[in-house]
């Protein structure tokens, strides 16, 4: 049977809470007494707001006690506690994030698998650095230019925590950001493909047609492939924004 969040916290605090070592200065802990920073940030991200302070405080006190004997052992202990705690709370507090990431990872993974199956002898056929640069950075810059750098930060924050509540106008801005980036990626794909078609037509001759037309066309179409892929991911993100906004609005109406 799975433990609830409160039961898990009770288990963490059931033992006698260790005391700070004598002479510990007030205020922020010195670096020598700080637990691993990445683990702290991960715990802050995963833990519910109500449990962050007590759980992090208990773990920090135990870490300080242990690191008096061996800092290396204390760090490994803290990492183990971080993994255990995150495993317990991740599906409770970040379930929306997990499903969003899972859907995107599945799409990318199945696309890469299809590319490999279609040409196992040379899977790098589907990779072209120039085409990637033409699509991804340009689409991102267009999205930031059409919105703002703050909207970019809000979009990244939303992807990290889709369940977080925000003002309706913030959801609209984030949705607009993903719409612009996805549409720009698709349009850039068509535009870059047309550039490639013009280059192919200009360089093609009767002598090199049979040997060059196929490979040149394949590279030309990669920009459209990348643009369509990014458009798909942005579409899913934009729909998630709309769904979250509606759910939060409905919950606010019920509570009101």
From TrEMBL:
<dbReference type="InterPro" id="IPR047699">
    <property type="entry name" value="Permease_put_prefix"/>
</dbReference>
<feature type="transmembrane region" description="Helical">
    <location>
        <begin position="216"/>
        <end position="238"/>
    </location>
</feature>
<keyword id="KW-1133">Transmembrane helix</keyword>
<keyword id="KW-0472">Membrane</keyword>
<feature type="transmembrane region" description="Helical">
    <location>
        <begin position="185"/>
        <end position="204"/>
    </location>
</feature>
<feature type="transmembrane region" description="Helical">
    <location>
        <begin position="97"/>
        <end position="118"/>
    </location>
</feature>
<feature type="region of interest" description="Disordered">
    <location>
        <begin position="1"/>
        <end position="20"/>
    </location>
</feature>
<feature type="transmembrane region" description="Helical">
    <location>
        <begin position="124"/>
        <end position="144"/>
    </location>
</feature>
<feature type="compositionally biased region" description="Basic and acidic residues">
    <location>
        <begin position="1"/>
        <end position="10"/>
    </location>
</feature>
<keyword id="KW-0812">Transmembrane</keyword>
<protein>
    <recommendedName>
        <fullName>MotA/TolQ/ExbB proton channel domain-containing protein</fullName>
    </recommendedName>
</protein>
């Amino acid at each position: 049977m799975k433990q609830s969040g409160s039961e898990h916290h009770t288990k963490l605090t059931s033992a006698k809470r260790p005391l700070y070592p004598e002479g510990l200065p007030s205020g922020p802990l010195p670096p020598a007494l700080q637990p691993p920073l990445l683990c702290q940030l991960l715990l802050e991200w995963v833990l519910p707001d109500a449990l962050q302070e007590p759980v992090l405080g208990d773990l920090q006190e135990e870490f300080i006690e242990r690191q008096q004997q061996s800092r290396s052992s204390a760090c490994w202990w803290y990492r183990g506690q971080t993994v255990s705690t995150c495993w317990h709370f991740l599906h409770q507090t970040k379930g929306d994030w997990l499903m969003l990431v899972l859907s995107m990872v599945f799409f990318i993974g199945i696309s890469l698998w299809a590319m490999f199956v279609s040409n196992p002898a040379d899977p790098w056929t589907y990779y072209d650095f120039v085409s990637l640069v033409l699509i991804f950075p340009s689409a991102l810059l267009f999205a930031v230019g059409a919105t703002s750098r703050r909207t970019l930060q809000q979009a990244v924050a939303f992807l990290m925590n889709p369940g977080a509540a925000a003002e309706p106008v913030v959801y609209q801005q984030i949705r607009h950001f993903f719409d612009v980036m996805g549409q720009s990626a698709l349009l850039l794909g068509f535009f870059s493909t047309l550039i490639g078609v013009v280059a192919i037509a200009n360089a093609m001759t009767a002598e090199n047609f049979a040997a060059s037309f196929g490979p040149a066309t394949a590279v030309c179409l990669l920009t459209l492939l990348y643009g369509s892929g990014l458009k798909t991911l942005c579409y899913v993100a934009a729909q998630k924004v709309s769904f979250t906004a509606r759910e939060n609005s409905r919950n606010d109406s019920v509570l009101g």
